[in-house]
Amino acid sequence: MSDAKENIAAGLEQVFWSRGFAEPSVPDLRAGVGVSMRTLYRYFPSREAMILGALEFRHQRYMRYVHEGVDEPGVRAAEQLFDKLGGWMRMTEGKECFFRQALAANPDSGEIAETVKRHKSELLTFFGELSGKMEFASTLYLLHEGVTASYAELGETAVEDAKTLVREMFRRANESRLS
Question: How far apart are CA 35 and CA 27, in angstroms?
Fold first, then answer.
């Protein structure tokens, strides 16, 4: 993305995050981003394109965040993932997944569905790499999605419980390898 397009996408992400995907009109989005209607449409020619731009920006931002400063693949890196997720959830005030919110508000959009699927697929791959065991990817994914969905109610308990389950998963795998 060019700098101008990225700045607009960042603004769109913030408007959608604070107001949801169903409510803000294109004029509301334009006002929230602080550009002219012409500039907004130059970079994002439809409301769906604006949502896709916000999703892409959020995807890149989240992937950078979860990759930063993690240990070598293994149990410690998998635990760090949930520490980072807890930090993300605190920053986002415990709101549920931005991608799932976009899809729920736009269930007939194939492009939004594909963008959400790509984001989740990249997370799944990353979780396998992070753990050093691709067979752990789906379990880490389920824990990640569960923490995201339940954080508003459970807070840090969700994070700590996920880390406990991660340690148990690695412990059992080591025991079965040794027997």
Answer: 10
